[in-house]
Amino acid sequence: MTQPKGFEDPVHPQFVCKLHKSLYGLKQAPRAWFNRLSTALLALGFQSSQIDPSLFTHHLENIHVFLLVYVDDILVTSNDRDFITFLISKLQLEFAMKDLGQLTYFLGIEATRNSSGLHLWQTRYIIDLLDRVQLLGIRPYRAPCVSGSKLSKFDGEILQDPSEYRQTVGALQYVTLTRPDIAYSVNQLCQYMQAPTTVHWTAAKRVLRYLKHTLDYGLFYKSGSFAINAYCDSDWAGDPDDRRSTCGYGVYVGSNLISWSAKKQPVVSKSSTEAEYRCLALVTAEVYWLRMLLRELKVSLASAPVAWCDNVSSLALASNPIFHAQSKHIEVDYHFVREKVANKDIILQHVPTSLQPADIFTKGHRADRFCFLRDKLSVIDLPASLRGNDKDKAQTVTTNIQNN
Predict the structure, then answer these.
(1) CB 3.0 to 4.6 Å from 212: which of 25, 78, 140, 321, for a disulfide?
(2) What pLDDT, in 10s, does the model give residues 123-153?
C-alpha cells in the first residue's frame, strides 16, 4: 500500500489513505449495470451467448451483429453500418454513451486495418512498461529465452523486494494477448511469483529485451476459410523441480491464430505419450468450445476440425479401441478424445516436429528456430505505412462505445 501520486504526505510518508467509500458505488454495482444492459439488449432482439456471457448476437436476414461487453466498454461489429448507427442511437436513449468511432484502441490493444487485413499490437503498452521499469535503453535480443535452459526455484539469490518482479510479470501476462510468441517465457516466469530470485529477474529482463527488439510486432488477421486446425505439443518432464510437463497448443481459424496456451500440467506424466495425450485432450476441449461458438455466430464449417500432433503413440492410442492396462491412468482423457474422434467431431493428424508451430509454447529455441516458429503464428511487424494513422476500412464495420 502506498500513497496516491500527487497526494503524498511529506510528514508521514509511511502512512496510507483510509477509504471511507468506494469510488464506483456498491459491490453489486457491476452486476446491476450488466443486468440492466443485458435487459436493454435483449429487448432490441439480441441473444445472450451460452458460450461467452459477455457476447451478444443479433441475426436478421442478411444482417449479423456481434456485441462484446467488458465492464463499461462495448465493442460492436456488423456487416451493416446503418444497423450500428441505429443500435447506438437506441442505447444512447437509455445510457450515457459516447461513440468513439472506428476501432483503433481497446483495453490497451491497438487495432489498424488495411486492405490486406487487421493488425493488433500493443506498442504503447510495451513502451509504458519499459519506461516503468526504467529499461527503455536496454540492448534488444532476438529471442525471449535461452535455448535449452530451464528456470528453477533454487537458482540465484532471493530478491529483497519482489514487488517489481511481480508487477512486471503481471504486465507481461497482458502483453501475451497479442504476443503469443512470449507465452512460454511468461508462463515460466509466473511460476516463481512467490519467491523470485535474481536469475528469474534476469530472465524477465530478457523478455523485455526481446519486446524492445519487436516493439511493433503483433497478430495479423486476414479473411479466408473457416477451417479449424489445432496444433498441440508437450515438453515431457521439462520442469527440473517437480518433473511436470509443459503443454502448449495453438488453434487456427483459416490462417489466423485465435487461441493459444502454454501451461504446466497439474500432474506428473509417466511417459511422453501420456503428456502428449493430456495435451491432446486439452486442445480437443478448446476446439469443441470454438466449434460451439462459431455455431452461435451462424458460421458453418465445411469439414471437421483437425488436431495435429507430432507424437505417433498418442495418435495410435486415440484410434485404437483396445485400452491397454499400462494406460489406465489416463483413461478419462482417453475416453473424451476417443468419443470426439468416433463422432467425427475432430480429426487427428500427424505433423513432423520440425513443422510443429506449438513447439514455441513448450520450450526455448535458438533465435533462428524461434523466428521460424513465430512467423507460423502470424506475429508480424506492423507495416510502416500503418503506423500513426488510420488506413483503409475493412468490409465489416467495427465501432467502440464507451459508457460515461
Answers:
(1) 140
(2) 999 999 999 999 988 899 999 998 888 899 9
